[in-house]
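sanity check this record:
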Amino acid sequence: MATFLVVLAHASRMYTGTGVVIPYNASDGLNHLTNIIYSFHMPLYMSVSGMVYALCIHDYQKYQDTARFLKNKAVRLLIPYVFFGICYVAPVMCLLGFTDQSYLRYCWDGIVLAHNNRHLWYIIALFEVFVVCGAVKAVVENVMPHGSHAGRKILRHPIVCVLTIVLLFAVSHESGRAPYFFSLSSCAFYLIFFYFGYCFHTQYDTVMKYLKHPAVMVICLAALVVLSEQTAWHMRMIKALFGGCFAIGATYYMPKHIMQCAWVKKQIKNGFGIYLFHPMIIYVLYVWLGQRDIQPWVLCIGIAAAAYLASDYLTRLLRRCGLGVLIGEK
């Protein structure tokens, strides 16, 4: 669900006036849709990552060796980051004229220093979040007298959770002061959402009992739509929470047979590859079609669908060629 939203928002963002291409026809509706999706789609992505992390730590007993965990994440995140940054994002940005830097300069400044790494900011920020998680887990477990079991218990204590949330809110609030390289500011801002996902998984049944209630979902959606144009830090937080709660609550009403559908399972498997491929395809399609007199909604949805399907195909192609490591696979 999050992947669909990301692809659609990257396509509709061209109609906000802040995209790399300004289409021939404007659309206030697509501008507003982009603001709504951008309010929560990446916080949702980070929260889902936190949920999966908690699932692996507590339910599957994985990631117990911190050094091995971080090595695994380095391989599965940094290899795709470097490959797609240098061999995919940089060439497209330079060839389409979206930067006045040379290819080598863009690789260094945009990718290595992460000053303009486009959608790849999420990958390096997520890796940094995992480094923070690994460090905290290792410190807590090493100082506890009974090792990892006691460490995991104290990390889930309500008082510890509340204090952690307060601390991470402060870190997020000050994230703009972080150095503007290596996605450090993004890591600082999104840590709180990763932790929300972690806490949500540990209290899934209790929280879901409220999120799935129709009245709660209506309130969350209404608040998201009303506040979507607000840009202050506290409003960004509120929008992200309302949007995330609505999206997660909506999963309760998703027919169970859909999740068992073979096509859906393939999309879940290919989600990371789709994320890596789709933005540059969107850029190319808008350069080709954006200045033509095409109805905005038709053009936007058509480009989003084409980018999604092409990214899905390229992901499967890399896997068939034995290059799954480039899309974060073992």
Q: What stands out?
A: The chain has three domains: 1-38+257-330, 50-202, 205-253. Residues 205-253 form one domain. Residues 66-95 form the longest helix (30 residues). The mean pLDDT is 90.
